[in-house]
């Protein structure tokens, strides 16, 4: 099964390498949309497939959307996380084995993608990690192989979220801030890459300093999606609020 081949050149190259394989190839467009997007190449590759590779089946993929590109990237780690998948490994894509394959689809056109390094073949694995609370997740992540606090994983999604704290006692601000950072590191340190203040956003409310902190979330064993990150961030705020009240700390999560 080949999903979203673009102009079908990869399907043709793969079929020539595997003449006995039963291949199902798909594109994201309808027939008319596909012909309009690849006017100079699609018909050629389709004709080649029909003549020389009769065991190839192709059909439009009617449901689903094209991956959004950002900085010329498919953001594949984020797309995989939405399906509970993690990138397990990456290896060089041996383009020389697929002589008729022409990379296309850059900005939804016939242009090829641009790579800083060589194209890669990615292997994915479905995550089986289970957790019920934010602190369970932090404990789970602490057991990740080579996990070091503050170290980012190249193949894992990350998201930035802001935390607003109102200090009710200005004279104790520095002390309370150290307490805050210590709490966050103790409870959530294994799922945060960084924590720092956005100093340009400092404000006062009724003579009480308000500070904004930026947290960068990343998990290694659990696919981190935008929805999951939002949920974790809200849970963090609830945990901190409860702790401030219970321990009579002069801070408020705003």
Automatic annotation (TrEMBL):
GO terms assigned for molecular function: rRNA (uridine-N3-)-methyltransferase activity
Domain 25S rRNA (uridine-N(3))-methyltransferase BMT5-like: 1-50
Record protein name field: DUF2431 domain-containing protein
GO biological process: rRNA base methylation
Organism for this UniProt entry: Gongylonema pulchrum
Record InterPro entries: BMT5-like
């Amino acid at each position: 099964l080949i999903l979203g081949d673009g102009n079908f050149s990869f399907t043709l190259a793969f079929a020539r390498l595997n003449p006995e394989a039963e291949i199902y190839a798909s594109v994201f467009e309808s027939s008319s949309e596909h012909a309009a997007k690849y006017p100079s190449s699609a018909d050629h590759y389709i004709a080649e497939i029909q003549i020389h590779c009769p065991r190839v089946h192709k059909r439009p993929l009617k449901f689903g959307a094209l991956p959004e590109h950002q900085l010329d990237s498919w953001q594949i780690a984020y797309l995989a996380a939405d399906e509970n998948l993690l990138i397990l490994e990456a290896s060089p894509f041996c383009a020389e084995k697929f002589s008729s394959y022409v990379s296309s689809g850059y900005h939804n056109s016939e242009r090829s993608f641009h790579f800083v390094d060589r194209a890669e073949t990615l292997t994915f694995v479905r995550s089986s990690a289970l957790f019920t609370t934010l602190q369970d997740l932090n404990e789970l992540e602490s057991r990740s192989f080579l996990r070091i606090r503050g170290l980012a994983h190249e193949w894992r999604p990350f998201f930035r979220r802001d935390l607003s704290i109102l200090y009710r006692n200005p004279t104790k601000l520095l002390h309370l801030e150290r307490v805050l950072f210590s709490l966050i590191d103790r409870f959530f340190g294994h799922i945060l890459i960084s924590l720092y203040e956005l100093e340009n956003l400092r404000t006062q409310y009724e003579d009480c300093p308000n500070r904004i902190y930026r947290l960068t979330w990343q998990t290694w064993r659990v696919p981190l999606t935008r929805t999951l990150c939002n949920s974790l961030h809200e849970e963090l705020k609830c945990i901190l609020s409860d702790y401030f009240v219970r321990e009579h700390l002069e801070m408020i999560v705003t």
